[in-house]
Specification:
There is one protein chain. The chain is α+β, with helices and mostly antiparallel strands and about 240 residues long. The chain has 2 domains: about 170 residues, no CATH class; about 60 residues, OB fold (Dihydrolipoamide Acetyltransferase, E2P) (Beta Barrel). Helix content is about 35%, strand content about 25%. The strands form 3 sheets. The protein has a 5-stranded antiparallel β-sheet. A 3-stranded antiparallel β-sheet has the order 1-5-4, covered by helices on one side. Strands 2-3 form a two-stranded antiparallel sheet. The chain starts with a strand and ends with a strand.
Length: about 240
């Protein structure tokens, strides 16, 4: 039995969207050095617990991701954008299998039991093992996690739609908005642009042959709140 999970280690611009005193504000989520140190420590903890579970025969749920053949990619943000389409979805399995995305042969998530049920159930399993209580089988753990998957997916979708809604509200209230975008993909006279300041991805017309990772000034043409869509153009 395997459960699909959304585990991504691709770094694309992210913003925190929140409303304060009636104003929509955007705060960039930066990849700070201390955050990278915490991330590495979390990976070490997950690998250590997975190894401990294997050594002592403790039924466990392992986070896995299949490897995939990745062609030569461009540098910079365009490379990260292209990499996303090649990465396969992570899965939860009862047997330790390699997690290609983080390069570990066995790994489980353990460090966030307050916000992630997988981590909580692993904590409970370790505690039961230490105290000599009955352990859940791996299948029982996967069944419980599977029951929560739909709820978790719905919550993530609700958060994405909320952020999108408030971004459209902000743009509709700022009709002359202008900013900077980064070209991450081109197709003739069409290109895909990421707008780091507001965390949006958009498609627009551009000069044919423009290099990837080029930063271009863009201006808002229209924001449609009901459809959660915004249209931009390169500012001449």
């Amino acid at each position: 039995m395997a459960i699909n999970v959304n585990i991504e280690y691709i770094e694309l611009p992210e913003v925190d969207v929140h409303v304060e005193d009636g104003k929509v504000l955007f705060r960039p989520i930066l990849a700070l050095r201390n955050q990278m140190m915490v991330k590495e420590a979390m990976l070490m903890a997950g690998e250590a617990v997975a190894a401990y579970a294997c050594r002592d025969g403790i039924p466990c749920v392992f986070s896995t991701q299949e490897s995939t053949e990745i062609p030569v990619l461009p540098d910079g943000l365009a490379g990260m954008y292209a990499l996303r389409r090649f990465m396969k979805r992570g899965q939860l399995k009862s047997l330790p299998t390699r997690h290609a995305g983080i390069g570990l042969d066995r790994y489980t998530q353990i460090t966030s039991p307050i916000r992630r049920y997988q981590d909580l159930i692993i904590h409970q399993q370790l505690r039961a093992h230490i105290l000599g209580h009955r352990l859940l089988t791996a299948e029982e753990m996967l069944q419980r996690l599977g029951a929560t998957e739909a709820v978790t997916s719905n919550m993530c979708q609700a958060e994405r739609l909320s952020n999108r809604h408030w971004t459209m509200v902000y743009l509709s209230e700022t009709p002359h908005w202008h900013g900077e975008g980064v070209i991450v993909e081109t197709d003739g006279s069409r290109c895909t642009v990421i707008i780091p300041d507001i965390g949006l991805e958009t498609h627009l017309r551009c000069q044919s042959g423009i290099p990837l990772n080029t930063r271009v000034p863009i201006v808002l043409e229209e924001a449609n709140i009901p459809e959660l869509r915004a249209f931009f153009k390169i500012d001449d």
